[in-house]
């Protein structure tokens, strides 16, 4: 069992003041509510965390971590187990979970609840900026609905095509 309490401000549910939220085996929301939105793009991993921006983290069958980029439906395997991955976050939370952006967003927009995310008004995959001005607070279920719609539309576009319109709820 990995000791998540090594992370700053770990309270049993989250770390880094809520920037990284943990889920346990009893969490059915991902499998049922959010996971089904992605259909064939749904990652086959064991979810353990979602950051405050809606990026999901899970364990693959080989016990290595993978990142699920919710706005593109891309699953990115990381060559690290859970303990090593938490060490990466501990070493550099600014790059791994955008902790500096999270702190700025909390200062400007308020702290989202455990069931809310900071959502990009224009998603990064669509050219949006990684800035507080491009963020709003959104219910996490509604956020995943929007992200799944974007992911399906992006996956239907051929590489090199220009994007003119992406619909979002």
Point out poorly predicted stretches: none
The number of distinct structural domains comes to: 1
Number of helices: 5
Share of residues in strands: 15-25%
Proportion in helices: 25-40%
Strand order of the largest sheet: 1-2-3-4-5-6
Instruction: Report the radius of gyration as a whole number of Å.
Output: 16 Å
| Structural classification | alpha+beta
Mean pLDDT: 88
Described by its quaternary structure, the protein is single chain
Please provide a written account of the structure.
This is T6SS immunity protein Tdi1 C-terminal domain-containing protein. Pfam families: T6SS_Tdi1_C. By secondary structure, this protein is of the alpha+beta class. Helix content is 28%, strand content 23%. It contains five helices and eight strands; from the N terminus they run ββαββββαααββα. A six-stranded antiparallel sheet has the order 1-2-3-4-5-6. The chain is globular, with a radius of gyration of 16 Å.
């Amino acid at each position: 069992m990995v000791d998540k309490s090594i992370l700053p401000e770990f309270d049993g549910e989250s770390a880094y003041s809520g920037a990284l939220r943990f889920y346990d085996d009893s969490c059915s929301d991902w499998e049922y509510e959010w996971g089904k939105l992605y259909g064939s793009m749904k990652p086959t991993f064991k979810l353990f965390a979602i950051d405050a921006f809606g990026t999901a983290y899970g364990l693959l069958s080989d016990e290595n971590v993978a990142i699920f980029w919710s706005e593109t439906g891309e699953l990115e395997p990381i060559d690290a187990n859970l303990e090593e991955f938490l060490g990466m976050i501990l070493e550099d939370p600014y790059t791994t979970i955008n902790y500096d952006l999270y702190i700025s967003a909390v200062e400007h927009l308020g702290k989202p609840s455990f069931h809310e995310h900071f959502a990009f008004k224009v998603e990064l995959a669509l050219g949006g900026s990684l800035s507080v001005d491009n963020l709003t607070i959104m219910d996490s279920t509604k956020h995943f609905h929007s992200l799944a719609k974007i992911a399906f539309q992006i996956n239907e576009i051929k590489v090199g095509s220009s994007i003119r319109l992406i619909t979002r709820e």
